[in-house]
Design goal:
The protein is mostly beta strands and about 190 residues long. Helices cover about 0% and strands about 45% of the residues.
Length: about 190
């Protein structure tokens, strides 16, 4: 299974049963590049929280925890691995057509949006709504980092305000949300 991805300043929380002897807990985090990871351990009820000074991007972290219960019995050693995200910047929306606020858009127009190269199509969702929250489901077509919502007929009504809502993701679980609206022309066949 894939490792949990951490942000460079994300806390690690260890949840113990109520019978742990908190004074017996020995926890350490070692980075594949930086060695022992500096930070602060603190108790909040039965949760032992590690707040790092900062992890190195792209680094693999190894967590090791030893503890005893209140009867001085050794608890099973816990070992876990985490991956620090190599980057934390989500995909950006580079361009969109129709543009935000555009009016007189043809009712048969396609919607095209281009993202930064790090976008992952399977991690990107799009919702297209018309007047009154009417959900519109055009065919989606990806070409590299460009997504076209194909309008196979006249999916849009004349004079309708359309809203596009996008949640774009990358391979490191970084996300960015975008939303914009445009309005179709009031008639399908202008004079």
């Amino acid at each position: 299974s894939p490792m949990t991805l951490l942000r460079k300043s994300e806390q690690i929380r260890l949840v113990f049963s109520g019978d742990v002897d908190s004074s017996s807990v020995v926890a350490s985090i070692n980075g594949s590049m930086s060695g022992t990871v500096a930070g602060l351990w603190a108790w909040t009820d039965s949760i032992y929280v590690f707040t790092p000074n900062g992890y190195r991007p792209g680094e693999t972290l190894a967590l090791s925890v030893d503890a005893k219960d209140i009867h001085l019995n050794e608890m099973e050693r816990v070992v876990a691995a985490f991956q620090v995200r190599p980057k934390e910047t989500p995909p950006s929306l580079v361009s969109r057509m129709p543009a935000s606020g555009e009016s007189n858009v043809h009712t048969g127009a396609h919607i095209t949006m281009t993202f930064s190269d790090d976008v992952i199509p399977d991690s990107t969702t799009v919702r297209l709504t018309g007047e009154g929250g009417r959900i519109i489901s055009p065919t989606r077509s990806w070409a590299n980092s460009a997504l076209t919502l194909v309008n196979g007929g006249s999916l849009f009504r004349p004079g309708e305000t359309m809203t596009v809502t996008v949640s774009a993701g990358d391979s490191y679980a970084n996300r960015a949300d975008y939303s914009w609206s445009f309005t179709t022309r009031p008639e399908t066949d202008p004079p």
